[in-house]
Design brief:
4 copies of one chain form a homotetramer.
Chain A (H helix, E strand, L loop, with lengths): L1 E2 L5 E7 L5 H13 L3 E6 L4 E6 L2 H4 L10 E6 L18 E3 L2 E3 L3 E7 L6 H14 L3 E3 L17 H14 L3 E4 L6 H7 L2 E4 L7 H7 L6 E4 L6 H13 L5 E5 L17 H8 L4 E3 L1 H5 L5 H11 L3 E5 L17 H17 L3 E2 L1
Parallel strand pairs in A: 8-9, 8-15, 8-16, 9-10, 10-11, 11-12, 12-13, 13-14, 14-15
Antiparallel strand pairs in A: 2-4, 2-5, 3-4, 6-7
Helix pairs in contact in A: 3-4, 3-11, 6-7, 10-11
């Protein structure tokens, strides 16, 4: 057994079968130049090099482009500040005296977009009555088609603030573009970053510098580790109040809009101290799957849910097919609250 | 509004923009020759033809190869006997007085493979003690590598029968090849068809002719509708006792071996009267995800679970990393039973 | 046969089996209120409604949320200005007297990022000598890790301009954030929108208003139709000079970083008049696959290639493992040029 | 640098952060008991163990189930006999004096299924005239729906033999079930194993024992390495005449039936000495994509093509929409032959 002082093993370099001793020397020399070190294991067929050194420097080396290198296998996860190892205790988000994380379950609900003052106020009262702990509603809408409704903008933010005034519910709303940052931060309690912006690194850095919690949605084709790397971008700037959101990934299955990756919940909780919520509306695109998937998320250990609910889904300007009516949301919320108690947590 | 008597609309043919009236006539003529009928809707840009007629005949027409046809959109689902429309009440599987389906929840557990008489008997007692309702164990093993353990064969079947004798637990075991059919049917209570054989249509037809229930696993890249079509192959031969099994699908995510498609549970229950169970061991490949995903499956409405449990996972000849130890299984089974009661069902 | 004057069939609504005549009436009434019309086909099992009317209005109706609606099947493609139907002749991009599109093949090459004046000038001379028609190089870099090199910014743009001065090659560089728009437009000849920003709709609208061609990369999990919808966002603002880029999609296969969807090339050319280029470097992440995949792209009908080439890949600050060396690029470029001639096109 | 005599490094075990020295000792002891050895690298955060020993024994250990083990990273590829390292020169298949592999390009064409003597004879003459080197045609058909045409069986095999008699073309036909083995082997020149049977290990072993070449299709969700493992099953039994076939994988893209993984061609040729052909018909499901994708396959280095062609696609009992007509096939075959010459190979 070889004790290697002075560093952690960041990755393993697997040399190709035809690699020469000179190739191995070249790698070791490059590592040394970067202030790192290589620990060589030579087998009959291939040689493997364990790499030690400063992560930020080592990560910048084009190891796979060196002669004789077959592949590079990461050993340590590439994020640090968001990792469970960095912080053992669960991060709990505290917004206007409602909590999310640890033993506190957050129930965030509301319409896809703010369509009018009347629509939003009705929605806010309805989700408040059913037991929601936060209100969601979009002011700026990312739409696949340029011909679809794009949101009311600042007017919507003001209506959301008014609903908060009346119901006491903190508001969650999406930031889509850096130019909206000031407005969104002025009105919102939680700033949402949508799935399509999960790797918009400038936007991530920007919300890393504000003092509002961020709800970060997983990209349609992002791995769990990529989601955590995106969160690292935010936390690195100083904002540690990040809520992760699983909202379905893209697969070959067409029965649902996306495929809810329910295993992401326990995986994220193993790898990170950040809370994770689930959006069953976007995950499936179907209103009648919201309840069973909400319950599945609670049972799997989620810290909260993000549910689309609308006073009259059949008139909604977006996402009507995946929004619950008042009666449906009331039923689902009651079941959720019951299961949250079963799971040993409290609402809010 | 046009009432079309004498048939259901099986599919819609969308003609391409450049299609001529002659192309439309050709399609209508071919439908008529096959005893069917087309209902034409002509728009400014494209023409759409609703197709009516005997499904089995229409399905044999190469509609997409006809001149001027752009695409064919199915309207009715392609399965019939397994559909919820065909049978409104839930199918309940009854095996040696334990039940699965409807309000009866089945807890199937045991090792990946039968390794020895002692191993299996210990496993059987352990899962029985923890509350399992059926015992699983492989006699024939599909292995990705030809260099891996391939199972004990008939000897394993006899050991399974002995375990049933002692514990009273019905046994579930996989059939991999038509030549094993007689042996497997002689000993097993439930015949399992593995994910890799989900579209082995000869095997499906063969188990459609035996009088034992079949547990049919979803293929790694099969849609829910393809799973139901595979079940249709079995039921069409006369065997209506089919249990469907969601066991994860293949996606880009590498944090888990496969991605458990938890939405498949409520989707299947909407579309079919057959019971559906979940295999969290194969879905994730990770023992510490078995409990949260088992609970998620119960909460989402599953009719049962299929869990790998082994007296000593660190000695297992296969799937050790995704098998629960006695202590782990006992804990998980207790939580499952508690949640099954919460969901208003009974075990077995 | 029913002739329906006054409109094209935009979509088909499939009612569920349990839908009532009242449900059908409700849909028809809502369509009428929106200035549209429905054409009903009633079968034994389900009713289907063909929808006609103004697309932009109809698209805003939450049809799937109406009572009794099972699903909505689109008939016409959702984009218009970028469609082959809108413009039959191929769009040809003309930049500083080099062309791309139609019979003109564009060979765009250069390093992942501009690292220094010397590195970039060497790269520019090298790709020019081998026959490239445009020079690529990143000034702003999207990096999965916040700890990686993020680009030289404006300084890089100035270096690129200097390289253009010397070699005559037009320059292609990525715009990542709206705040960089003025700088990028000032220096670049073609503005690249990266895969992660394919659905950054604000950015798309912004480049739709500039007078430089845009190279739009397909998102990792975007369908071809979503790519075309993203292009529609740009063209709708007035900028018709859009080059589409296939750069691999995310699948379960791990042998390559992404999976090059070579069929996207002929599919795009059928559906759109815009030119399409292929990026084999990002599609695979492996330098030794660049040549075979470049040739495959040419053979499949691509209008150009985007290849990463670096004076010394083993020193590259990013993408070293997928960048060709001078010798490699020279060999590949010669083969490409030969096959372009075979295909009946000319370089530039 | 540590020289490790007596073995190759098969895999690396990465211990979890919390692993104890006792956990490391346990792993080393288990490796020793299995006749292997571990080479330990201890870093600040985690310990990594390189594993040496007999592959077949080591592969049987449940390493991931050992206490303190985080994950196991394979170093060497799991196949041996089919690997490029095992055999440096290309395998060339020689059937009735036509060749496939190395510098010999095989053009296999014919209808999806044998429908009648007249249909098949016409098809055989047509593909022969256009330059095909082998004739394909199905006697047994795997169909997703039990209500579709299932093939003519032995009668079809006899018709195929008659076509060979007349045209001299070797015949390729699919084996679906072990009970058809004798018949198929009696008549066929090349035995095809379909995508759905790629991991039907009993069938693989069975064809490993016959003296006819096998054409093995990649499964819809199989990785390249899994395809090579499946080929290893065949070669291990003694049959070294295996042709691999890329026929598209399942992804989220719906514009084509599957996504042709064109990078699989050079990847397979790097990793294996076996020839690889491409099936553009099944890869896309669209007749007008056959030609561009065939050319892409040739350019990427494929050893052959498998194209569906039918005397009258609009009457085909299966796959009409992806079969070329005589005129289409004749055009495509001419283009293919021209590009094969460009690539420096010969037909047959």
């Amino acid at each position: 057994m070889t004790a290697l002082d002075g560093g952690s093993i960041e990755m393993m370099i697997v040399m190709s079968e035809g690699a020469t001793p000179h190739d191995v020397e070249y790698v070791l020399q490059k590592l040394a130049e970067a202030g790192g070190r290589g620990h060589v294991s030579t087998g009959d067929v291939v040689t493997v090099i364990g790499v030690m050194g400063d992560r930020e420097v080592i990560a910048g080396l084009p190891l796979e482009a060196y002669p004789g290198v077959d592949k590079v296998l990461p050993i340590l996860r590439p994020y640090k500040l968001v990792s469970r190892e960095f912080r053992r205790t669960d991060t709990v988000i505290d917004v206007r005296s409602t909590k999310l994380g640890g033993t506190h379950f957050g129930l965030i609900a509301g319409p896809c977009s703010v369509e009018s003052r009347e629509q939003l106020m009705t929605a806010a009262r309805m989700v408040k009555a059913a037991g929601a702990t936060m209100l969601r509603g979009g002011a700026y809408k990312p739409r696949t088609s340029p011909y679809s409704f794009q949101g009311l903008g600042v007017e919507a933010l003001q209506i959301l603030a008014e609903a908060r005034e009346e119901t006491g519910l903190p508001i969650v709303t999406e930031l889509m573009d850096i130019r909206q940052l000031d407005d969104v931060v002025r009105y919102a309690d939680v700033v949402q970053i949508g799935a399509r912006n999960m790797q918009n690194f400038y936007l991530l850095s920007a919300v890393g510098q504000v003092e509002k919690p961020v709800l970060l949605k997983r990209g349609l084709s992002a791995t769990v580790d990529e989601l955590l790397m995106a969160a690292e971008y935010i936390v690195k700037e100083g904002n540690t109040q990040v809520i992760l959101c699983e909202r379905g990934i893209r697969t070959f299955e067409t029965a649902t809009r996306n495929t809810l990756d329910v295993a992401a919940i326990p995986i994220i909780k193993q790898r990170s101290h950040l809370p994770v919520v689930v959006d069953p509306s976007h995950a499936t695109g179907k209103v009648d799957l919201i309840e069973p998937l909400s319950l599945a998320a609670v049972a799997a250990g989620a810290d909260g849910l993000l549910i689309e609910a609308h006073p009259a889904p059949e008139t909604a300007l977006c996402d009507g097919a995946q929004s619950q009516s008042p009666r449906e949301f009331s039923h689902t919320a009651a079941r959720i609250k019951d299961l949250v108690v079963w799971a040993g947590k409290t609402i809010g």
